[in-house]
Amino acid sequence: GAVVSQHPSWVICKSGTSVKIECRSLDFQATTMFWYRQFPKQSLMLMATSNEGSKATYEQGVEKDKFLINHASLTLSTLTVTSAHPEDSSFYICSATSTSGRGSYEQYFGPGTRLTVT
Amino acid sequence: AQSVSQHNHHVILSEAASLELGCNYSYGGTVNLFWYVQYPGQHLQLLLKYFSGDPLVKGIKGFEAEFIKSKFSFNLRKPSVQWSDTAEYFCAVPNSGNTPLVFGKGTRLSVIA
Questions:
Q1: B37 near B95, Cβ under 8 Å?
Q2: Euclidean distance between the first and final Cα of chain A, in Å?
Q3: Rounded CA separation B26/A105 (Å)
Q4: Which residues of A touch B98 (CB under 8 A)?
Q5: Which residues 22-81 of chain B have a CB within 8 Å of chain A?
Q6: 3-state DSSP percent of chain A in helix, strand and coil, to 5
Q7: On the CB side of A6, how many CA atoms lie within 13 Å of its CA?
Q8: What local confidence, expressed as pLDDT, does residue B3 receive?
Q9: Smallest CA–CA separation between A54 and chain B, in Å?
Q10: Interface contacts (A, B; CB < 8 Å)
Q11: How many other C-beta atoms are found inside a 10 Å radius of the C-beta of residue B95?
Q12: How far is Cα B85 from Cα B104, in angstroms, rounded to an integer?
């Protein structure tokens, strides 16, 4: 199956600093990538949709100036959490789309990045 | 917009008991349906998916799910659970077409010996 990787898997940063998280599709080209956020013991909430070569589309309530998303190539999207605060501590998960042989929609998930802001 | 409901927040079962987790979605028509599992401390893994054809879908680790279009449901089942099935289970449906998956709130399954 299609593989999506994330780096780093775990990061601790100080309040006020910025952190960049990478999402890569390893064996397929991903025209669209998605960023989700998961708080402890809760479900995944979509933050934004990232299309290669264009600006990301953010969900309501997500600050686009705080969560900068770049999708510069068909295999890489990055999420930068700017001026991080403790409330930004969460599990960030990316996913990428690939179309199966039957043309059906499918979404592949990365392993997630745990961000802890102190 | 599509919404997904998982009715059971936390299910506790003894080993060898049968499992059924409910999932309902709001929009009809052509839908792709997914169940994911997240073991403690691990990332999401696809359990099974339905795109078309036989509404009874078999997935990994002995799980299966049945798509009932008239009920907008895609319930997950397993005849006999094991301690290793302890995890969080998420039902997911694309919002529409080629747009991102919308997840249910998840059901935490605890299997006790």
A1: no
A2: 37
A3: 18
A4: 32, 97, 105
A5: 32, 36, 43-44, 49, 51-52
A6: 5, 55, 40
A7: 28
A8: 87
A9: 16
A10: 47
A11: 14
A12: 19
Tokens of B50: 């339905």
**Nearest by CB to B100, which of A42, A46, A100?**
A46
Is residue B80 within 8 Å of B17, Cβ to Cβ? yes
In this structure, the strands spanning B64-68 and B56-58 are antiparallel
Q: What is the pLDDT of residues B12-67, one digit of tens each?
A: 999 999 999 999 998 766 678 999 999 988 888 899 999 889 999 999 999 999 99
Contact residues on chain A for B88, CB-CB shorter than 8 A? 41
Rg, C-alpha atoms of chain B: 13
Report the C-alpha gap between A33 and B74 in whole angstroms: 26
pLDDT tens-digit readout, A23-65: 999 988 888 899 999 988 788 999 999 888 888 999 999 999 9
Return the structure tokens found at A111. Answer: 């392993």
Side chain identity at B2, as an amino acid letter? Answer: Q
